[in-house]
Amino acid sequence: MSGVDVCRILREDPRITPCTPILLTTAGRRGRQERLDALATGAWELIGLPVDAEELLLKLAAYMASKFAADQTREESLVDELTGLYNLRGLMRRARELGSDAFRHSRALACVAFAPDVPSANAAAEPGEELWGAVDRLGRVFKMSGRVSDAIGRIRLGEFVVIAPATDEAKALKLAERLVRTAEITEDAEARLKVLAGYDAVSDFREAGIQPAALLAGATLALRRCQAEPGGEAIRRYDGDREGTTPLT
């Protein structure tokens, strides 16, 4: 396999960020077309042999400083780079805003957690290609079918969360059913994706006297019960005691 082919495969992998420097080497002098091919596939540099070690080290130092700065910016961001939805930090900030509004107006508030029913979706095992594909598909479904009023994000590799304002228990169930159904629709039976969901909701957030994180914890725990019982219910309501629960991150 050529270096250009390797570079192309790496750039197509969602785990390799665009700010990750990839350098290719070639024997002898660099040809113009060879250089263009390398750049077109996402390489930062095509280096001809012999290598000027001092120049290469200076370039590597500059590239790594750039990547470090980009990584820091991404860590401080509120957006999940893989899906374009909220990350956990952004989701929790938005949840606090929605919770404050629900408290002021004594409105309902709900949280629904989703995960594809594929091996390693619980992130306890090494992620497989099936899971990466399912995450990409769910991300696109939520971006296209999610409500503008909702806060939608990815909290773990294969888990998505929707914080839904003005949504009581009955509406939370309908929301879960709609998004699960949308994610599973496909004309290819072999590519059909089964999605599990857990939800928690209160009809009056002020009266409930809880934090938004408690709803997130309830929804993720309900989702865990779906994952723990293969062939059981695809959608579950959290019906336990919220005391002492914390969101799983």
Structure commentary:
The structure is a single chain. With 249 residues, this protein is α/β, with parallel strands linked by helices. It folds into two domains: 3-76, Response regulator (Rossmann fold); 88-237, Reverse transcriptase/Diguanylate cyclase domain (Alpha-Beta Plaits). It has helices at 3-12, 32-40, 53-76, 88-105, 129-145, 169-184, 205-208, 212-228, and strands at 23-26, 45-48, 109-116, 151-156, 159-165, 195-202, 235-237. β4 and β5 form a beta hairpin.
What is the topology?
Layout: H1 3-12, E1 23-26, H2 32-40, E2 45-48, H3 53-76, H4 88-105, E3 109-116, H5 129-145, E4 151-156, E5 159-165, H6 169-184, E6 195-202, H7 205-208, H8 212-228, E7 235-237
Parallel strand pairs: 1-2, 6-7
Antiparallel strand pairs: 3-5, 3-6, 4-5
Task: Give the helix/strand class.
Answer: alpha/beta
Distance between the termini: 38 Å
Name given to the CATH architecture of the largest domain: 2-Layer Sandwich
How much β-strand is present in the residues?
15-25%
Largest sheet: 5 strands, mixed
The average pLDDT is 86
The helicity comes to 40-55%
- Name the CATH superfamily classification of the largest domain: Reverse transcriptase/Diguanylate cyclase domain
Using only CA atoms, what is the Rg?
Answer: 23 Å
Q: SSE string, helix = H, strand = E?
A: HEHEHHEHEEHEHHE
Beta strand count: 7
Instruction: Identify the CATH class of the largest domain.
Output: Alpha Beta
Reported by name, the CATH topology of the largest domain is Alpha-Beta Plaits
Strand order of the largest sheet: 4-5-3-6-7
